[in-house]
Structure formats: structure tokens, C-alpha cells
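Study both lines:
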Amino acid sequence: MKKHSTATKRPGLLPWKIEMEKRPAGSVGGVLWARLVAVAGLVIFLVLFLLVAGKGKSLGSILEALFIRPFFTLRGLNNTLLKVCPLLIASIGVSLAFRVKLWNIGGEGQIMMGAFGAAWMALLFPNLPAILLVPLMFIAAFIMGAIWAGIAGGLRAQWNVNETIITLMLNYIATEWVRALVYGPWRDPAAGGFPQPKPIPQDAWLKRLIPGVEINGVLILALILLAVYGIFIMRSRWGYKIRVIGDAPGAARYAGISVKKNILLAMLLSGGIVGLAGAGEVTATHMIQVNISGGFGFTAVLVAWLSNLNPLGILGMTVLLSGMQAGVMSAQIYGLPAALGQAIQGVLLFMVLALDYLTHYRFRIVRRAGKEG
């Protein structure tokens, strides 16, 4: 069994040392223990933070704002669902890349480029009827997102360039590109000097599914994509291929599977799906904005990790994290900082990484050689 010691080569002062030992495959106890540690760590963080930041305020009211209102009040549920739509779409796209062990950290940029493609079509063809314009916007968003992720996919497939770094850097390029448009040629002359982009035509606005609730057809699209992801990845031949490539690329090559082609295809599909979230945001806000990605691209990475790429897990974690973000907005009336949401996500990510490591390794305390007796 593989071991590696944290001890140095020089003789230790103590009669024992700590070693990390690889767990046997399928160690259920290790998985459960690691998950308990992660959950306990998050609970401890929240309690300590609220005790400090919420000093002088009702702890019960703060907890109600954070965890009850986002799911059990009409206004809170509305705010939660507004975040569910783009986050769910982005999480599906990111999870697809993760299936192939491609670390697509460029969701922010792909959402921005998807929004750019959608807004471009809306402004370029303002007189098209809605039945043609809306699909054209989503097709353009898919293409732009696919191109943006395909850059990293092509470099990885052809020259084995690290896709994590490339997708991360592309986020900043996409942001500056959208900023240049918003403050430049797409600036609304009717905004009275305020740097506001031109609104898209009303035919491109998606109608609400439920009166009084800010939810449109993008939610239906997101649920369809989730179902397709589950069936396609788990049941299709191509889904089997990319799982093999992700788990054992050497075995995939031996079996005659084109690793390069499937890496590029997976990144194209991943970026295209994430780009659809940008189109959804444009149809919801009626314009493209510099901050239109809203952090959903980074949060999608967390959803993918927490859900273990499982379709139902993706849905559950999307709803949970969206509710947390909505709850933080609600709790700001008690003086809690807006950055609390990012702090919670950061702690969650840290705990997930610890969980992943402790699932595969465990600590052992052993006696040093020559220290017996």
C-alpha cells in the first residue's frame, strides 16, 4: 500500500511520526468521515462568523434571513430562482468538461461571450420577430461560448497546454471586451452621458412563466439541458468514451478512442452550454452589462465539485448555493457584509478539497525505527 511520510530525513525528537496512507479503493468509512469533517467545518465557520459579525443583533433573525426566507417566502424564492437559471446552465457546462478531467475555470468569460453573442444578434437584427430573434440569440451565444472554450481545448489537445490557466486568463479578456463595447459603440446615446448599453428590442425579452415571479423560459431550457446531460453522459456511447478518457486516457488510446478529438469536442460543448447562460441573462436584464456574468462561472465550479458531477446533485447544489446568495442579500439589513456569500463559497471549496484528499488518504501515527522500548 502506497505511503509517503511527512517526516524529514534527520532523526526526530519524538518516538513517533505521522504518515499519509492511501485508502483502499471504495473505503466508505473514509468518505463518510471526510464529509462529516467538511460539514462540521462549514457549520463552525458560520457560527463563529455570525457570533462576531452579528454581535448586538438577533441571531435568530439573521439565520432566518440566511436560510428560511430564500426558500419559504415569495420574494426570497423569486430571488433564489433568478440565480438558479444561469447557475444551473453554467454548472452543467462546467461539469461536462470536468467529466473528461478538463478543468474549465473559464465560465465567467464564456458567460460574457455568450451574452455578447446574444446582444450582438439582438442589436444587429432589431426588426426580426421574436420567434426568429430569440433562437438566433441563443445560437449565437452557444457559438461564442464554444469558441471561447475551444481556444483552451485546442491548445490542450494539440500541445497539452494547461487549460486551467488558459480558461482563467480568457475570463479577463472577455470582461475587457464587453467593457469596451458597453463604454464604446454599444453605449446608449439616450442615457444622458451615463455609461449604459443600448437595450435589446422588446421582441427579444422572454415572457414570465408565472405572473409576479421573475422567471422566464430559461428555467425550462436549464432543466432540459440537465436531463440531456444526465442521459447523454450516463447512457450514450460518447458519454462512455469521455468517461474513459477522463479516468484512463492511456486505456482510451489503446481502445482506439481519439483523445485529442474528444477533448476538443468536450470543451466546445462545455463552453457552448455555459454561453447559453449569458444569453439567458441578456433576455432577463434586457441589455448586456460588464458584470453580467455575476460570478456564476466560478460558482459553477463549486457546484460541480460538490455534486460529484451527478445530475441530481448539480440541481440540488445549484438551488442550495443560489438560496445562500439570496439569503446573504436579505441578511444585509442586519449589517452583514455582501462578501459573506463569497466567504461561504470559499470555505465550502476549501472543505471540498480537503474532503477529496481525505477520501483517498488517511493519517497514521507510527513509531520511528529504533525508538521502541
